Amino acid sequence: MQKYSLLSLVRHARHYHENWQRAWRDPVPKKAYDTVIVGGGGHGLATAYYLAKEHGIGDVAVIEKGWLGGGNTGRNTTIVRSNYLRDESSHLYEFSLKLWEGLSQELNFNVMFSPRGVLYLGHNLHDMREIERRVNANRLNGIDAEMLSTREVQKLVPLMNCSPDARYPVLGASLQRRGGIARHDAVAWGFARAADAQGVDILQRTEVTGIRTVDGGVTGVETSRGFIGARRVGCVTAGNSGVLAAMAGLRLPVESRPLQALVSEPLKPCLDVVVQSSGVHCYVSQADKGDLVIGAGTDSYNGYGQRGSFSVIEHTLQAVCELFPAFSRVRMNRHWGGIVDICPDACPIIGEMPVRGLYFNCGWGTGGFKATPGSGYVFADTLANERPHPLAAPFSIDRFSTGALVDEHGAAGVAH
Amino acid sequence: MFRIHCPHCSEARSEEEFSYAGEAHIPRPAAPSSMSDAEWGEYLHTRTNHRGQHREMWVHTAGCRRYFNVLRDTVSYEIVAVYLMGEMPPEREEAP
User: Fold this and answer.
1) Which end of chain A is more exposed for a tag (fewer CB within 10 A), N or C?
2) Domains in chain B, number
3) B68 lies in a domain?
4) The CATH number of the domain where B25 resides is what?
5) In this complex, is the C-beta atom of B95 within 8 Å of any C-beta atom belonging to chain A?
6) Is position B90 within any domain?
7) Cα A297 vs. chain centroid, distance in angstroms?
8) A400/B41 Cβ within 8 A
């Protein structure tokens, strides 16, 4: 892999930038690999990267039916934070946030992580009590969190309507300063390039059509380019996890729902923090190129169609316009949906399935992007050592029969 | 966004009037006290999450407030059939 640096930029400038190396190869699939990762999104590529880098397992293929990062990695609102309520989840997301902080250097690829602060608004007394409780829980877990008054919120975000006459007045907020946004495509590309450099084969436009098992153990996957053998298979397929599980004769405690988002036309810089409110349901931030990135809610029904109902968009935009009256005349450029896999406790499932050698990393639901590096790291460790990573252990599928759920619905400031 | 024909009101109304009530035809355990933890977990949490024609319940929240079943395609979101609680589900057409 050619290192990206100022020097290489200057060197290539002399040749009119015509000789840049391809960021990753397009290899012909081998007959078999040590480990096959199904799903070429951020989580899958990060898993492959850490398998190669941390555990020396380079005989890995990442199989993707479409293009890299074309699923939820390219469809989210790019928010990164770690202010979850429960110990188990806050440890996992904080581990991930620490990886984010050094990720551009680690991958030699600018993922444009911008820790600009994440505000979470409260609109009534109950909200404020919940927020304060979460701030205290975060601090006990060593995660930065602070409470802001209405006046401080107004100072931080001058455009926001903080008037007491608002329909849902802003009574205060929590702020995680280390949280922020990143460039979603760059995360997929950065991990892909770094994994490829360690010998990982990335197979795009290759669809897994079946999982082959013998005597309760996995032996490989059937794909649109033929059978690929593997000692271990890790499925990281988000919304399609249920479909993959069915190929191995399994059912998961997961339901796939559409989650929508939209972006506006580019504006001059006007919003330099991430604003989030589950009370009125609004997620908004301004990307580096100037467009407002707005996250809507999940639809209530199961769906795989990568689109949702207009009423959900309408509801979110009402909240955005209520909070930011100045945005009411901004035109929206694009709108799309992704399919999120939601667990009953809004937490992921990481670990081995009842089929030997078959591992799943799924159920990240509406909040998987922020976990990308951490999820990849703990899943790679789980695959390589064939036992759960300590941070992943509370997220085994067994919790749905033992009852040890990690209830983050609502608790985490996850607005569904 | 789609319209749903409520079999009780005999009218096709906007989806916003309805609430999704989850997968249909999950029988309550007949002998709850003798079930294992795994069986309880399965009953409470595990779902078919079918890609294709999915049998599900809806309730007409802003209308008659009664439940009914729907057979809906989870990829095209097309409603294939609407039938009453207690009725036998129509045959599901499997995706090729």
Assistant:
1) N
2) 1
3) yes
4) 3.30.2270.10
5) no
6) no
7) 16
8) yes
- Strands A226-235 and A358-362 come out as parallel
List chain A residues with CB under 8 Å of B44: 344, 400
Pick from B16, B20, B37, B51 the residue to mutate for testing the A interface (most A CBs within 10 Å).
B51
Closest C-alpha to A338, from A222, A238, A210, A264: A238
B60 in contact with chain A, both atoms CB, cutoff 8 A: no
All residues at 6 or more sequence positions from A413 whose CB lies less than 8 Å from its CB, including other chains: A83, A84, A85, A120, A131, A134, A174, A276, A278
| Smallest CA–CA distance from A343 into chain B, residue | B45
* Single-letter residue type at A243: V
**Interface check B78 vs A, CB under 8 A:** no
**Average pLDDT of adjacent 10-residue blocks, chain A of 416 residues:** 92 94 96 98 98 97 96 95 95 98 97 97 94 96 97 97 94 97 97 97 97 96 98 97 96 96 97 93 94 94 94 94 95 96 95 97 95 98 97 96 87 49
Is residue A282 helix, strand or coil?
Answer: strand
Rounded to two decimals, what is the model's pTM?
Answer: 0.95
How many residues would you count in chain A? 416
- Kindly state whether residue B60 falls inside one of the protein's structural domains: yes
Q: Which domain holds residue B64?
A: 3-83
**Closest-CA residue to A358 (of A252, A204, A199, A256):** A252
Its ipTM equals 0.93
**Which residues of A fall within a CB distance of 8 Å from B76?**
305
Contact state of B49 with A309 under an 8 Å Cβ cutoff: no
Rounded CA-CA distance A216/A354 in Å is: 8
Residue B95 lies in a domain: no
